[in-house]
Amino acid sequence: MESESARMSSAAEARFRIDYPNSEPRVIKVVALDDVSERVVKRVAEQTWQRANFFTSLKFDGAAGGDLAILTAEAIDDRIARGKAVAGSRVDLARSGIGLAVRQGASKPVIGSPESLRSTLLAARSVAHSKTGQSGIYFPSVLERLGIAEQMKPKMVVPDIGTPIGEIVAKGEAEIGIQQISELLPVAGIAIVGPLPAPLQKITTFSAGVLATASDPRAAKTLVDFIATASRALLEAKGLEAP
Length: 243
Known about the structure:
The protein is of the alpha/beta class.
């Protein structure tokens, strides 16, 4: 499965590729970018799903066929509205919030309110966020809302697409890192400070839906329900919330 914030394959992602083929080779790969996805896909691959095919990239738009998609809730709803996914088939899998991390051993700043987050960001020497993905696209609007966008420009570190923000922080290339907590958590050498304050938080809901091209919609829906059940016990430990 492919994380919402990873739009392109990279060397860093290669270590998450899963050697559990469950469909004929296609151009689009099944890629896991976190432990939850990896474990669930391994469990899925152990079952018989009548040669189901999986597509999770946002670049996928149904033209290549397939049985189900795992995207953001908004993206699934959009495909339902355009007739590319089956109405009523959306099942929410997890909620993901944006958080802040520092290098392991560094003092954890106070970020419990918008005011304290503002002070922390202004005091930081450097702050890293993704170029794309939910957190990368959203965080600049947080700076605007805090009224410090111009002041923060010289401090911002925006690495190449596919570079985990946690790794930038762990290497000391940025004092603070901003990304979805589920993506920060697996990175060694950093400490999670906590989520963005509630008034500034953006929660992303990841969902699955049966595609209109499904050869067996009933089997695809059964698989969606299986994934939802199999992933539930793993969410909290991986920085995700139940929907």
